[in-house]
Amino acid sequence: MNSFVFLFFFLYLIGIAAQSNNPNEDDISIDNNVCSPNVTYSTGELTTTSSEPITSMTYPPTIYDCDFECNCTCNWKHDDTTNFKWIVTKGSTLTTSTGPDGDHTTGSRSGFFIHIETSSPAKFNDTARLISPDLIVTNDEQCFRFYYHMFGSDVYRLNVYARINGNLGKALWQKEGNQGNQWLFGRISLRGNIQQPIGQPYQLVVESIVGRGFQGDISVDDLAFNQGPCPVSTVCDFETSDLCSYVNDPTNTIDW
Predict the structure, then answer these.
(1) Is 166 left (phi over 0), alpha (psi -120 to 50) or beta?
(2) In the chain, how many domains are there?
(3) Pairing verdict, β 135-136 and 218-227
(4) What is the DSSP secondary structure assignment for residue 166, as one 8-state letter?
(5) Which residues contact 178 (CB under 8 A, 6 or more apart)?
(6) pLDDT, mean over the chain
């Protein structure tokens, strides 16, 4: 019988402020922290699984979920105030050296996802938006999850907003530029980030903007919503305010 020893540990990130008269010279920054992939043991061999998210959670379905396998946008709607739209597609996008080779849900060319096509007649700053059904602001933990693909030399920007009374305000989440030929996990902890009173409605908006060339396709898949906290991830790029579930030590003299 095989036996394994499991070691549990906590990771501490420690920064020490220097003594400097210039407040800009003693700043310490950390970005894009990556842990090793999850490891799955089986008899006789070692296999690895995707490193994001770190926990494999199953959540009850909601009206905000969409994997686009219906060849549609489910309960999400296009923003009719823009002429540029997200496209539901499968396989790959029309242009080489940009976009995914398949969807995230099935991991194959037969699965569907949405993308923006940045070839002509698309032009710089064309904007596509997908709008969710109404959500209600609560004091409870809530999470919006999605996967995104931003590969190409001309990739510009992907945003997620909370739309309140028709206004977008400040982005809840933003990513810009080439992120490599891979599907990446995005998440937003909604509690405390919606500038609207408890009990009032808002909508989530997934927005993509065309860059300055044709190799700038941006794709999104597996939109999902859950009550409770966001699942823990092995990668933290600090694009959201929740520090990816890291917490500041209460004995700190200064905080990250």
Answers:
(1) left
(2) 1
(3) unpaired
(4) T
(5) 150, 151, 152, 153, 155
(6) 83
Widest CA span in the chain: 64
Taking only Cα atoms into account, the Rg of the chain, rounded to an integer number of angstroms, comes to 20
Coil/strand/helix, residue 245: helix
C-beta of residue 153 within 8 angstroms of C-beta of residue 214: no
Please give the residue range of the domain that contains residue 141: 77-230
Using the Cα atoms of residue 104, residue 147, residue 136 and residue 207 in order, give the sign of their dihedral. negative
CB neighbourhood size of 231 (10 A) = 18
Structural domain contains residue 69: no
For residue 198, the one-letter residue type is I
Q: Is residue 99 part of a domain?
A: yes
Q: What average pLDDT score do residues 142-171 get?
A: 97
pTM: 0.75
Mean pLDDT value of segment 61-84: 97
| CATH number of the structural domain spanning residue 175 | 2.60.120.200
Does 20 have pLDDT greater than 60? no
For every residue of 37-80, DSSP letters joined together read: PPEEEETTEEEE---SSSS-------TT-B--TTSS-TT-EE-T
pLDDT of 70 > 50? The answer is yes
